[in-house]
Amino acid sequence: MKFGSKFYQRWLALLLLALLVMTGAIACGGSNTSDSGAIRVGSKDFTEQFILGEMYALVLEKAGLPVERKLNLGGTPIAHAALQTGEIDLYPEYTGTGLLTVLKLPATSNSQAVFDKVATTYKSKFNLVWLDPAPMNNTQALAMTRQTSERLGIRTISDMVAQADQLVMIGPPEFEVREDGLPGLETAYGQINLKEYKAVDPGLRYKGLVDGEADVAVAFGTDGEISAFDLVLLEDDKRLFPPYQVAPVVSQAALDRHPEMINILNALTPKLTDEVMRELNYEVSGSQREPNEVARTFLTEVGLL
Question: Distance from the CA of 111 to the CA of which of 54, 64, 94, 239 falls in 20 to 30 A?
Answer without folding.
Answer: 54
